[in-house]
Amino acid sequence: MLKFIGYLFLFTLLTISTQVGGVLLLLSIVISKQWKVNFKFKKILIFIGLYFITILFFIPLIAPIFGREKIKNTNTIKPTNYMTVLLNRNYVRPALNKLLQKTQTDLKNTNIEIRYLDANFPFITNFPLLPHLSHHDGKKLDLSLVYETQEGILSTKQKSISGYGVFEKPKPNEYNQINFCFKKGYYQYDYQKYMTFGEINKTLIFSEIGTKKLITVLLKNKNLGKLFIEPHLKQRLHLKNNKIRYHGCKSVRHDDHIHIQLK
Q1: pTM for this one?
Q2: Tens digit of pLDDT for each residue in 173-192?
Q3: What does the pLDDT look like over 45-54, one tens digit per residue?
Q4: 120 dihedral zone (left: phi>0; alpha: psi -120 to 50; beta)
Q5: What's the confidence (pLDDT) of residue 37?
Q6: What range defines the domain where residue 100 resides?
Q7: Which of 29, 105, 114, 262 is deepest in the core (most CB within 10 A)?
Q8: How, if at all, do strands 205-206 and 147-148 pair?
Q9: Measured between alpha carbons, how far apart are the two ends of the chain, in Å?
Q10: ω before 131 within 30° of 0 (cis)?
Q11: For residue 4, pLDDT beyond 90
C-alpha cells in the first residue's frame, strides 16, 4: 500500500509539473519489469533516459499537432531558468514565436535581451500549467523584468534562481494594489515569494529604462492582445496603452515579471 501511495504521489507530481512525466513513469516501470537485466538504480535510470529522449525528440515532433512549438532560442531570446525547458513549460503557438522574434529585431542595438519564464505545456488546451491560471492554450508567456548594475549598465541576470518572487515594490507615492488585494482577502497574491529557490545578484536594481523599452516594443506588435504588469510599475514607467490590463486580485502580483498573451 505504501509503495502504491508513493507511486501515485510521484505520478501526480510529475504530471502536474511536466504534463508527460506521470505517463513516462508508468512506462518506465513496465520497461523495468520486462527488462530482465538488473543493475543499480535501474528504475530511476530508465525513467531519466526515457524522459530526456521523449522531451528532446518526440515531444517537439508531436506538439505541432496541437498547434504549439518550442520557443526558439537565439542569442538574445533565452530562458531565465533552464528548468522551464526541462519541465516542458516552454511551448507556444507559432504566432507567439514570431512576436518574440519581431521584438528581438526591434530591440537590436539596445543591449536588452528577452529572458522568458513559464509559457505553456506542449499538449491539450485547458490542461493546467500550475500554479498559473491561464497558461493552458499556447498563447501566454511570462517575461523577466530588466535589471541593471549600480552603475546603470543593463544586465541579463535576474534576482532569483527561478526568475519569480523578488518584487519591485511600490514606492510611497505610488498606488499600492498589493495592499488593496490583501485587504480584500486575496492572500495568495504574493505567493511567488516562496518560489524564488534562492535570491541572487542582490546588487542589481530594477531598470526603468530597460523594462520600459522592452514593454514599449512589445506593445507595438499587432498580434499582442494583452500585457499584465503591476499598476505601480505602469505608473512609474509612464505607460499608457489599452493593451496593458490589470490581471485582478485572484491572480498574483506582476512586479516580478511581465505577462504577455496573443489576441
Answers
A1: 0.94
A2: 999 999 999 999 999 999 99
A3: 999 999 999 9
A4: beta
A5: 87
A6: 69-262
A7: 114
A8: antiparallel
A9: 48
A10: yes
A11: no
The mean predicted confidence, pLDDT, of the chain is 96
Grid cell 536588452 in the structure block, residue: 112
Residue 99 shares a structural domain with residue 59: no
Same-domain pairing of 92 and 45: no
Please say whether the beta carbons of 148 and 91 come within 8 A. no
Same domain, 52 and 73: no
AA letter at 83: M
As a whole number, mean pLDDT of residues 210-215 equals 98
CATH code: domain of residue 186: 3.30.1380.10
Same domain, 91 and 209: yes
Burial class of residue 156, CB neighbours in 10 A (0-12, 13-18, 19+): middle
